[in-house]
From TrEMBL:
This is Solute carrier family 25 member 47-A. It comes from Xyrichtys novacula (Pearly razorfish). Solcar repeats lie at residues 38-127, 136-224. InterPro entries: MCP_dom_sf, MCP_transmembrane, Mitochondrial_Carrier. GO terms for cellular component: mitochondrial inner membrane. It is a multi-pass membrane protein. Its main location: mitochondrion.
Length: 240
């Protein structure tokens, strides 16, 4: 988990930075002061796709090392000695393209997933915001963030299954899948459609608390940075 934890700050920065900049560009293009829900959806999708450039290498290392841990429990000799060795081994054996194996399903996962994620957050926040206020209170932000995380993973879980299978294909045994579409059809043929949602429960259980913290942190930091840019003393923690 060392490499994914190292890259998580970069991926989050790319996602939220792309999202905010796309929102600003879309509102300026229309000459409007506010953004529509379509703006939010498209900006979220752009953010999800953009972060793949920094996320994919760390993600494939995480998947390879996790599967290696399962093999060690069965007595198999580990192939990788750590995240850095795993990263260098993939580059040596598969080239730099190997770091982006599974990038297409990752893109199809994170594009729609983040679009749904940000749109769900905006809709719930609007519903929970009292008249005369710009944002809901902290409990509203936490609820909106948690539900948004669950909604995003509900959309993204099927492609997450395909992504993991393509990343591991050929790593422990002979290559099984010919490509993206063959992986989907072969998975459905042998295991049924239900396999795409087998991990949905645990994904949602993890997503709710994680994204509560993510959006509270996001709102606090953007509030402080906006006030600092406007020359206003930062308020005490809490929404007005």
């Amino acid at each position: 988990m060392t490499l994914p934890l190292t890259t998580i700050t970069m991926t989050s920065s790319v996602v939220f930075g792309t999202y905010r900049n796309c929102l600003q560009c879309l509102s300026q293009a229309r000459g409007a002061c506010s953004n529509t829900k379509l703006d939010v959806f498209l900006s979220g999708m752009a953010g999800g796709i953009a972060q793949i450039s920094v996320m994919s290498p760390g993600d494939i290392v995480k998947v390879r090392l996790q599967c290696q841990t399962e093999s060690k429990r069965r007595g198999a000799k580990p192939k990788y000695h750590g995240p850095v060795h795993c990263l260098l081994s993939i580059i040596k054996e598969e080239g730099f393209r190997g770091l982006y194996r599974g990038a297409l399903p990752l893109m199809l996962r994170d594009g729609p997933s983040y679009a749904t994620y940000f749109l769900t957050y905006k809709i719930i926040c609007e519903r929970l915001t009292d008249s005369g206020k710009k944002r809901p209170d902290w409990s509203g932000v936490m609820l909106a963030g948690g539900v948004a995380g669950m909604a995003g993973w509900t959309i993204g879980t099927p492609m997450d299954v395909i992504k993991a299978r393509l990343q591991m294909d050929g790593a422990r045994e002979t290559k099984r899948y010919k490509g993206f579409y063959h992986c989907i059809t072969e998975t459905v043929r042998t295991e049924g459609v239900g396999v795409f949602f087998r991990s949905l429960g645990i994904n949602c259980l993890r997503a709710f608390p994680v994204n509560m913290v993510v959006f509270v942190t996001y709102e606090v930091l953007t509030g402080f940075l906006k006030d600092a840019a406007d020359g206003i003393d930062p308020p005490r923690i809490g929404f007005e």
